[in-house]
Amino acid sequence: MDEGMVDRLAGIARAIRRRDAEMIHRAGQGHIGGDYSVIDILVALYFAVMDFDPADPQNPQRDRLVLSKGHAAGALYTTFAALGLIPEAELDTFMTPEARLNGHPAKTKLVGVEASTGPLGHGLPIATGMAMGAHFDGSPRRTFVIVGDGELEEGSNWEAMMTAAHYALENLTVVADRNGLQQGATTADTTALAPLHEKAAAFGFEVTRVNGHDYSALVETFTRPPCGKPRFVIADTVKGYPISFMSGKIAWHHKVPNSQELAAILDELGEP
Fold first, then answer.
1. CATH classification of the domain holding 116
2. What is the pLDDT of residues 127-186, one digit of tens each?
3. Least enclosed by CB within 10 Å: which of 40, 62, 118, 194?
4. Does pTM surpass 0.90?
5. Domain containing 38: what range?
């Protein structure tokens, strides 16, 4: 991927992070730390990898993306606004009563949301079903699903992975947002996932580890030719990235920036 494309994706992500911070500050609710760890993955997929046309978001042959870590809905909504799927002004309705922009994505409310998520451990099984449908249809459409690393404590994920491997769903890519933190603790102190690479491989997946904030590495990984197996991408990320006082801090799982913190975030991000 050339330098111009990298700069373009970085600019889009910077604008999304700015708007996400403003949106969460305005709402007084949200999960900005997890939003910031996953934004670069969303930008790489929607703007450089997926066969997805915002002007035709329900095309039957579109690639699908399921955000299983549904508490990062703010990252998804601000990405949708950058794509033109929703009006930018609608972001100001985030978390207001009866708004389409719930605290977790709702398929019944918003075109572009492929699955209602929030209860952790649901997105990967749903995505596996989507990939199976494409497999049996003989369709080239792909399914990507982003899971949190804390979410991998849920056994339903591993049941789905066994099914995906059994049917050799090479059209399925699981992306683990590996920021090492979950609500209130590290993943290592809660339920250690290591050795995650070896576990995913033992379940029949092709496993790749990548810097989750490196656009070139992400795009190269997501666009590799099919290998006859489902793919599991361990994306090493930083909760709160790239903000100095948020990065790697557990408190920012659901902490809301006050006015002074918002100003500092926008200053660190710079102009979009």
1. 3.40.50.970
2. 999 999 999 999 999 999 999 999 999 999 999 999 999 999 999 999 999 999 888 888
3. 194
4. yes
5. 3-269
